[in-house]
């Protein structure tokens, strides 16, 4: 079944919202997020993913009548987030990326992935601003959860502390205060 056919199911009025959310979480999200652990996202790509998720959620929750005017209207992004009650797609990507980073860091020097991560490419680099690297995204993700100036490879060696750090990245509250745990 194609992804567009599954998305059309979300507009089907006979399905309950709970079934539509389960379809989204079990069929659509895994397809969209396949391999997201290795993505190096720019802000533009993060915004496009949020737009996509909001479009899908609008199909699920349908337009609602405005209480004041009685006219049908699309739900605002904040209303969609309140109704969905799960972390947004970008937070899920960041959490998965951090989990994978911990796995790679614990591999040590014997793993080929680790060598690619810490290795320095040879040759000349292209003109212009350097592209955002995967490791740069990990460092930004750690700053968002309150881990500034921490060596993330060393932090990832302790599985329990790293797991809590990764889970802080998907807290729906918006207040990411995991730095206290790491002190």
Number of helices in the DSSP assignment: 10
Number of domains: 2
Describe the largest sheet. 2 strands, antiparallel
- The percentage helix is 55-70%
Proportion of beta-strand residues: under 5%
Report the mean per-residue pLDDT as an integer: 82
What is the number of strand segments? Answer: 2
Quickly give the structural class: mainly alpha
Described by the principal axes of the CA atoms, the overall outline is elongated
SSE series? HHHEEHHHHHHH
Which residues form runs of ≥5 with pLDDT under 50?
A: 172-183
**Distance separating the two termini:** 49 Å
Radius of gyration: 20 Å
Give the strand order, joined by hyphens, for the main sheet: 1-2
Account of the protein in words:
Helix content is 57%, strand content 2%. A two-stranded antiparallel sheet has the order 1-2. The protein contains ten helices and two strands. The termini are far apart. It has two domains: 3-85, no CATH class; 91-122 and 130-182, no CATH class. The longest helix is centred in the N-terminal third of the chain and has 19 residues, at 43-61. It has helices at residues 3-9, 17-32, 43-61, 77-84, 89-107, 112-118, 134-144, 152-155, 159-168, 179-182; strands spanning 64-65, 72-73. It is elongated, with a radius of gyration of 20 Å. By secondary structure, it is an all-alpha fold.
Task: Give a quick rundown of the structure.
This protein is mainly alpha-helical and 183 residues long. Helices cover 57% and strands 2% of the residues.
Name some characteristics of this structure.
mainly alpha; 2 domains; 10 helices; 2 strands; elongated; disordered C terminus
């Amino acid at each position: 079944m194609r992804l567009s056919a599954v998305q059309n199911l979300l507009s089907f009025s006979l399905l309950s919202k709970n079934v539509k959310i389960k379809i989204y979480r079990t069929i659509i999200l895994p397809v969209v997020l396949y391999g997201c652990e290795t993505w190096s996202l720019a802000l533009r790509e993060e915004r496009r993913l949020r737009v996509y998720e909001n479009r899908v959620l609008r199909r699920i929750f349908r337009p609602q009548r405005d209480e004041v005017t009685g006219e049908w209207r699309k739900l605002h992004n904040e209303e969609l987030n309140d109704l969905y009650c799960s972390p947004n797609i970008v937070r899920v990507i960041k959490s998965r990326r951090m989990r994978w980073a911990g796995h790679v860091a614990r591999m040590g020097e014997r793993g080929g992935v680790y060598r690619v991560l810490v290795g320095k490419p040879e040759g000349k680099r292209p003109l212009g601003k350097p592209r955002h690297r995967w490791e740069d995204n990990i460092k930004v993700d750690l700053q968002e959860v309150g881990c500034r100036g921490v060596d993330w490879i060393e932090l990832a060696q302790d599985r329990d502390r790293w797991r809590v750090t990764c889970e802080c990245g998907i807290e729906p509250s918006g207040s990411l205060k995991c730095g206290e745990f790491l002190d």
